[in-house]
Design brief:
The chain is of the alpha+beta class and 571 residues long. It has 22 helices and eight strands. It has two domains: 98 residues, no CATH class; 388 residues, Proton glutamate symport protein, CATH 1.10.3860.10. Helix content is 64%, strand content 9%. The longest helix is centred in the first third of the chain and has 39 residues. It is globular, with a radius of gyration of 26 Å. Bound molecules: aspartic acid.
C-alpha cells in the first residue's frame, strides 16, 4: 500500500475517533468539566457558604467529575422558561500541579492537606448569562470524561510524530539552503532566482488576500451569525482571544522586523529555531562558499552539508513509517476538541474560507502550473499529495517541508538546487492560505461587530495580511496571532478573534495544505523558468529506480556507499 493511502486511512480513522469518542462527542455522556484556568471557576466546599470558596491558583488546570447537578428555572429575554444547571457536585484529584501552585498552602489547608492523588469534592458554580436575543450561555460547559481520556491517551502519539518531524527542520533548512545557494554556482543566478521567487511568493499572497476579501464582501458570512451564537462564542473563547491580541500588540515595528532577520549569533538562531535568521545566515554562508571558488576550500563544506541534507531526508523516510498513526492521533485531537455546535454557528464563515482556498488553488495555482510550468495539473497534484497530507494533518508548513522537498525532487523532477532554495524559503515566507483566511476573517469579524470597512481599509488589509504571512512561522495557529495584528491596523476589535477561535484549528489544516501547495507550485514554475525539464515520476520509474520516489525507500536493497567528497572533487 502506498504511503499516501496509509496516511489517508489514518486521517479517516482520526476523524471517526474524534467525532465518536472525543470530549465533545454526542454519543458519550457529558459528565466532566475540564477547566484550563482554575481561577476562572468557583468551587465551594459548602454550597450555601460563600466563605468556603476555594482559592484556586491562577493558570492551574482542573478536571472535575460531575456527580449530581442542581437546576433552576430561569426566564429568558423572550419570556421563555428554561431549565438550567446552577450547581454541580464535583470530585477532583489533588494533583502535583495544584500542590506546586499553592505555595502558601492556603488551598491545601482548606482541603485538609490532601496527598497527591487523593480526591476531594465540592460544589462548582455554573454561571448562566442571559442573552439579549433570548436563551442563555452557561460557563463552564461539561464534556465527556471518557472522550477526554481517549484523546489524552492518543495525544502523545501525535506529539511524538510532530516532534520527530520538527527535529529535522532546522538542520534540513540550513543545509539545504546552503547547498542550494552554493550549487547555483554564481551570485547573479542567485539574485535572479531569488528575485523571481520572492516576487511570485508575494504576488500570489496578495491575490489570495484579495480573493478572501472579495468573498467575504460577497457572501457576508457575518450576517449569518445569530446573537446567541455570537455571545456564546465570545464567552467561550474570550480568554484565548485576549492572548492573541496581547501577542499581536507586542509585535515589533516593520523596521525592527527587518532588522530581526539578521542574526547576531547564528548558532543561537539555529538552536532557537528562528527560521528567518537561519535562512538569512544559510544564504550568506552559501554565497561566501560560492565566492571562495572551486579551487579553494568551499567544496568539502558544501559536500558535507549535502550529506547532512540527504541524511535528514532519510530520517523523514523513517518517520513516515509511523505517519498514519501520528496523523490519526493529531486529527482525532483537533476534531474531538471542536465539537459540532461551534461548527454549526460558523458554517458560513468556514464555507467562505474553504471556497476561497479552493478558488485560489483551482485558478491561481492551476494556472501557474499549467501555463508557466506547462505541466498537467492532475499530474502535479498527484506528485505532491504526500506533502499536502502531512501539511493538512500537522497544520504546519515547516513540518511538511521535508516531505515537500522529497515530492519536488523525486516526484516532480525539480533539480536539487532549485528545490533546496525555493522550498525552505517558501515554508516560512509564503502562506497564501493563511493570508486568504485573514482576509475573510477580517471582513467576517467587521460584519459581526458592525465596523464599516472602506476600500482603503481593505487595501490596508491586503498589505498587512501579505506582510503578516511572511512573518508568521509555519506552525499550527500562527495565523490567528498575526490576524489580531491585521485587525488592529484597520480598527476592528482584536477580541473579535474569539468569534472564530473555535473553528480555527480545523481551518488551519486546510489553509496549511494550501500554503504548501503554493510553495510547490511556485517551485515548479521556478524550475521551468530556469530551463529545467520537469517530469512527473511514473509507477514504473518508481519501481525501477531505487533513488527516486517516495515509496518503500527503507525497504530497498542497501546501495553501495556513496562516493566520498574526495571522489567528487576529482570529477
Ligand atoms: N499553520 C499554518 C502553516 O504552518 C500557519 C497558520 O495559518 O496558522 O502554514
Amino acid at each position: 500500500m502506498q504511503v499516501y493511502t496509509k496516511i489517508l486511512i489514518g486521517m479517516g480513522a482520526g476523524v471517526a475517533i474524534g467525532l465518536a469518542l472525543g470530549p465533545k462527542s454526542a454519543l458519550l455522556e457529558a459528565d466532566t468539566y475540564v477547566v484550563g484556568d482554575a481561577s476562572s471557576v468557583e468551587i465551594r466546599l459548602d454550597r450555601d457558604d460563600p466563605g468556603s470558596a476555594l482559592a484556586l491558583p491562577e493558570g492551574a488546570s482542573l478536571r472535575l467529575e460531575a456527580e449530581e447537578s442542581l437546576y433552576e428555572h430561569l426566564t429568558d429575554a423572550n419570556g421563555e422558561r428554561v431549565r438550567l444547571r446552577t450547581w454541580v457536585h464535583v470530585r477532583f484529584e489533588w494533583t502535583r500541579e495544584l500542590a506546586l501552585r499553592d505555595p502558601g498552602n492556603a488551598l491545601s489547608d482548606a482541603l485538609e492537606r490532601p496527598r497527591v492523588g487523593e480526591e476531594r469534592d465540592g460544589w462548582l458554580r455554573v454561571v448562566n448569562t442571559a442573552l439579549d436575543g433570548g436563551g442563555f450561555v452557561s460557563t463552564p460547559e461539561p464534556v465527556s470524561g471518557v472522550g477526554t481520556t481517549v484523546i489524552s491517551i492518543l495525544r502523545p502519539v501525535g506529539t511524538a510524530f510532530m516532534k520527530l518531524i520538527k527535529m529535522v527542520i532546522v538542520p534540513l533548512v540550513f543545509s539545504s539552503l546552503l547547498v542550494g545557494v552554493a550549487s547555483l554556482g554564481d551570485v547573479r543566478k542567485l539574485g535572479r532566482l531569488g528575485g523571481k521567487t520572492i516576487g511570485l511568493y508575494l504576488g500570489t499572497t496578495a491575490i489570495a488576500v484579495t480573493i478572501g476579501l472579495a468573498l467575504g464582501n460577497l457572501i457576508q458570512p457575518g450576517n449569518f451569525v445569530g446573537e446567541r451564537d455570537r455571545a456564546a462564542l465570545q464567552a467561550q473563547f474570550s480568554g484565548s482571544a485576549a492572548d492573541s491580541a496581547q501577542s499581536a500588540a507586542e509585535a515589533p515595528s516593520t523596521v525592527d522586523n527587518i532588522l530581526a532577520i539578521i542574526p547576531e549569533n547564528p548558532i543561537g538562531s539555529l538552536s532557537s529555531g528562528d527560521m528567518l535568521q537561519v535562512i538569512f545566515f544559510a544564504m550568506i554562508f552559501g554565497i561566501a562558499l560560492t565566492l571562495l571558488g572551486k579551487d579553494k576550500s568551499g567544496t568539502p563544506v558544501v559536500n558535507f552539508f549535502d550529506r547532512v541534507q540527504n541524511a535528514m531526508v532519510m530520517i523523514i523516510h523513517m518517520v513516515m513509517t509511523i505517519a498514519p498513526f501520528g496523523v490519526a492521533a493529531l486529527v482525532a485531537d483537533v476534531v474531538g476538541q471542536s465539537g459540532v455546535s461551534v461548527l454549526a454557528a460558523l458554517l458560513f464563515y468556514a464555507v467562505t474560507v474553504l471556497l476561497g482556498l479552493a478558488i485560489h488553488a483551482g485558478i491561481v495555482y492551476a494556472g501557474l502550473v499549467r501555463l508557466l510550468a506547462k505541466m498537467p495539473v492532475t499530474a502535479f497534484l498527484k506528485a505532491i499529495r504526500p506533502a499536502q497530507l502531512i501539511a493538512f494533518s500537522t497544520s504546519s508548513s515547516s513540518a511538511a517541508l521535508p516531505v515537500s522537498m522529497e515530492c519536488a525532487e523525486q516526484n516532480l523532477g525539480v533539480s536539487n538546487p532549485v528545490a533546496s532554495f525555493v522550498l525552505p524559503l517558501g515554508s516560512t515566507v509564503n502562506m497564501d492560505g493563511t493570508a486568504l483566511y485573514q482576509g475573510v476573517a477580517a471582513v467576517f469579524i467587521a460584519q459581526v461587530f458592525d465596523v464599516d470597512l472602506s476600500f482603503t481599509d481593505q487595501l490596508a488589509i491586503v498589505a498587512t495580511a501579505t506582510m503578516a504571512s511572511v512573518g508568521a512561522a509555519g506552525v499550527p495557529g500562527a495565523g490567528i496571532v498575526t490576524l489580531a495584528m491585521v485587525l488592529t491596523t484597520v480598527g476592528i476589535p482584536p477580541v473579535g478573534v474569539a468569534l472564530i477561535l473555535g473553528m480555527d484549528r480545523l481551518l488551519d489544516m486546510f489553509r496549511t495544505a494550501v500554503n504548501v501547495t503554493g510553495d510547490l507550485a511556485v517551485t515548479t514554475v521556478m524550475a521551468a523558468s530556469e530551463g529545467e525539464t520537469l517530469h512527473v515520476l511514473t509507477k514504473e520509474e518508481d519501481k525501477g529506480d531505487p533513488d527516486r520516489g517516495f515509496e518503500d525507500r527503507l525497504q530497498r536493497e542497501p546501495r553501495p556507499s556513496p562516493p566520498t567528497s574526495d571522489d567528487l572533487e576529482e570529477e
